[in-house]
## 1
Amino acid sequence: MKKPEDYLAIGDAAKRSGVATSTLRFYETRGLIHSIRVSGNHRRYHRAMLRRISIIRVAQTLGFSLREIAAALDTLPDQRTPTKRDWEKLSTSWGKQLDQRITDLQNLRDKLSGCIGCGCLSLKRCTLYNSDDGAAGLGAGPRYLLGDEPWSGPGD
Amino acid sequence: MKKPEDYLAIGDAAKRSGVATSTLRFYETRGLIHSIRVSGNHRRYHRAMLRRISIIRVAQTLGFSLREIAAALDTLPDQRTPTKRDWEKLSTSWGKQLDQRITDLQNLRDKLSGCIGCGCLSLKRCTLYNSDDGAAGLGAGPRYLLGDEPWSGPGD
DNA sequence: ATAGAAGTTAAAGTTAACTTTAAGTCAAGC
DNA sequence: GCTTGACTTAAAGTTAACTTTAACTTCTAT
């Protein structure tokens, strides 16, 4: 069942998946993908990994972190090529999360609209200030650092 | 016009704005805010800075990077409290960018929907694979590193 | 006058997602 | 037999947005 032709060297896997070899090694340290070793300690990736790699990349485009992706992939079989059903479950779940992010952004957008004309940046009760929705974290950079200190309001 | 009461020590500015003193110093190195120095080399922030700091925080919630925020703030007066008109211009521009991000996300969502049932992760021409829309960069982490290598397709 | 709170700077640490570099191993072709 | 190309690991570098630490200095109140 598992013929040698089913396995790719890291360089070939890189070419076929479109990601750098260093990235593949990195993904492996993060448990996102797996390999077997052959003589000389060289890695060999099963062809099924190619699809796994593709899924990872798609998920990143959708805005998920590697940590989240790893968690999602843990629900998939490692060595078996994910079935249509597997992918359906994953993508449905991701779709819901995407919807949530869109909703969050729209809420923020509404709040901003309400604030555009009013000059309310001077007000203590500006909805934008006191909004604690999950929308923070959508931008770039490490959001986990933000909000460490409780936000006591602008006081102006 | 500029009375001493108009100036705050860094600790007071931190308390009133809700951000840590270290953050204020950091923002200053990035040119986001400014201060004057009094005896003993201590910083003093003009009260107008409080509003500037608030704007920075709001913009971050909206998902903008400090670099983008700095650029936007450069269109504002430094020492003068931003007027309602100033804020209107800023927030309008930010609103448009928010709209764009929402649109991008929705496009992505549509593509995902189209792919949920079809099992197309196995296809070379899956729209999700070959989507090069600006939606990448909405997630966490440094997206500038992604896409360095041209994406030659999954090949599976 | 002196303790303690608050300030100052420079440098290093943190997280994510990788890349780059250094130094060495292996296999294949000529 | 030897060069070349592909591989391996471990460690350090990169960016963003801060925080933490170290080593001092200064202000404030008693």
Note: Residues 84-116 of chain B form the longest helix (33 residues).
## 2
Amino acid sequence: MNKRDTKQKQIVYEALLEHKDHPTSLEIYEELKNKGARIGKTTVYRILNNLVQEDKLRRINTFDNVSHYDYVLDDHIHFVCEKCNKIYDLKNTNDLKDALEEMDVSHNNLLIYGICSDCKGG
Amino acid sequence: MNKRDTKQKQIVYEALLEHKDHPTSLEIYEELKNKGARIGKTTVYRILNNLVQEDKLRRINTFDNVSHYDYVLDDHIHFVCEKCNKIYDLKNTNDLKDALEEMDVSHNNLLIYGICSDCKGG
DNA sequence: GTCAATGCAAATCCTTTGCATTCGG
DNA sequence: CCGAATGCAAAGGATTTGCATTGAC
């Protein structure tokens, strides 16, 4: 099954690149629809899932139980607002310092993703 | 509206304390049901939500888009297996070292939770 | 007795699946 | 053409809401 290069794949990825925030599948879909693009909701979900699987995109999951997407693959810190659900990037030490000063931090959670030793064998 | 101490609140919290893993609302519900407890699914969801809001419980969200709960409030590292969806606690440097050796790490994500400066005012 | 808490059913929200249609190679 | 990709409608799964009932105080 050779991959095919479609208009939809292009515009979804391009839409993501234009976002500094971390949009959800639905947000991408609605933005493209508003622009008049010919694309279906299902397709956006499918394309984003594929991009994550191909390691071209990262999925971020916060307490809102909705998948957000990040085209920045390097590990970096996200500040998640518990009130407005916005996700901010903290890219460097200064960003982090600023956040710790300006924002009310309640707690943090470091998730390390990978394959556990049980699953490695099979 | 004074809080009331109910049997259901007790058994939900007790069930959590007996878990080293990080159960979901549904898992707690089914476990209690199997034990013959008189409790509804909705109630488990509601109690767990309240406990998070009261800061007596922490919600963990991974790529599976299902809320897991952790009674350990201190910040600590979670290893999330991308294959079996299990969540492991890495409590100290040795746990971390072991994980990095034994498991295939693909990436990590540090989330800092709090209230952003925009929301602080209002 | 009062009113918070419960629990069922129904609703809601996000996401995936089935399948006929479209279109890239 | 062939079969991967699309997109609609329907299904699925987690969670919340409405509301009558129960039970803690």
Note: The radius of gyration of chain B is 17 Å.
